[in-house]
Design brief:
14 helices
């Protein structure tokens, strides 16, 4: 997690330096990593711990307990008006700190103000909207977005793909360590096979050039670095979408590339939507919502869609049944029936 010095828009201050309590946060991150939490979750949970400390005027968490946690989490709901999921995330981060780092069990949080859980219907594009938004993208950015829509991937899942995750023979993509640290398999769209192969040819040339300059390494998941020395330079483990800049670790001497940053694709999609003049709140995740909805509209059963999306609970997938547009077989407005019966005789009052 980087150093921060500017206030957030919601009134919190991010840490100006991690040196406020380096031992505590190092222990916290190690505890998260030991339980196989993702690096992104490490960053988010650490952020909540910093905010908790700053909210209580830099007091050390070991000197606080249920009362301070209750006050902070309630403050999030009553004054910051965060969503229920955000409040639960903050509470989970603090409970992890006390249980697994400070070795203290937190008792009942009395009179905790809970944020109201809302049911939100996802924004979904129709086929024409998908077509025109993707049509304004080019090159690598377009390929990424086509995979988001064509496979129902989350953005970070797509950017984290490695060469060995693509199975062109079986037309499959293996999604490793997705949300909840779960693996799954999705289809590889036949219309993207040629484009993907051409893209990989360019990536392989880049990798070979990096190797010639003593670069070409990637970080490997888990303990694979120790189990397979040299695998970090292997073509099979390289990112499908490597970033332009190369990195160098001064301590270990390792050199390589990471995958491209999600903000690059997010900006590209935002600009494309603006150029198209669409008023829907479309983001990269909207393509995943559209993927699921269009499959259900096409007659695929909801269990199949659940598996492709990687949802643990079927109820999560069922949200897409609320936004189905079934055309003539759907519910018809009684106003349309009135117009159909009376035709020109029905004239709304001005």
């Amino acid at each position: 997690m980087g150093n921060y010095s500017r206030p957030l828009d919601d009134g919190y201050l991010q840490p100006s330096s991690a040196s406020k309590s380096p031992k505590l946060m190092e222990q916290y991150r190690r505890a998260l990593a030991a339980r196989h939490y993702s690096p992104r979750t490490e960053d988010i949970y650490s952020s909540w711990v910093f905010r908790f400390i700053i909210f209580h005027k830099m007091r050390h968490p070991k000197d606080m307990g249920e009362l301070e946690i209750n006050k902070y989490v309630s403050y999030l709901a009553s004054e910051r008006r965060v969503s229920a999921s955000t409040q639960n995330q903050a509470l989970a981060a603090l409970l992890f700190l006390y249980r697994h780092v400070l070795d203290r069990e937190i008792g009942e949080l009395v009179n905790l103000i809970r944020a109201k859980k809302s049911v939100r219907i996802p924004v979904v594009m129709n086929l024409d909207e998908v077509r025109i938004v993707i049509g304004r993208l080019q090159g690598r950015d377009r390929l990424v977005v086509e995979l988001l829509y064509g496979c129902g991937l989350r953005l970070i899942e797509c950017l984290s793909l490695r060469v060995n995750n693509l199975d062109f023979g079986r037309n499959e993509i293996q999604v490793r360590s997705g949300k909840g640290n779960k693996d799954r398999v999705v289809m590889l769209p036949g219309s993207l096979k040629t484009v993907l192969l051409e893209h990989l040819e360019g990536v392989k040339l880049l990798h070979e050039h990096d190797l010639s300059e003593n670069y070409g390494q990637v970080f490997l998941p888990g303990a694979l670095d120790r189990k397979y020395p040299g695998a970090s330079r292997d073509w099979r483990w390289q990112w499908v979408f490597p970033q332009e800049r190369r990195w160098r670790d001064k301590q270990s001497g390792r050199r390589g590339r990471h995958h491209i940053d999600p903000t690059i694709i997010q900006r590209a999609v935002k600009h494309s939507v603006q150029k198209c003049g669409l008023t829907k709140r479309i983001s990269c995740h909207t393509f995943r919502h559209s993927f699921a909805t269009h499959l259900l509209e096409g007659g695929y059963d909801i269990r199949t869609v659940q598996t492709l999306l990687g949802h643990k609970d079927l109820r999560t997938t069922m949200i897409y049944t609320h936004v189905l547009n079934r055309g003539p077989s759907g519910v018809r407005s009684p106003l349309d029936n009135l117009r159909g019966v009376y035709g020109e005789l029905y004239k709304p009052q001005t």
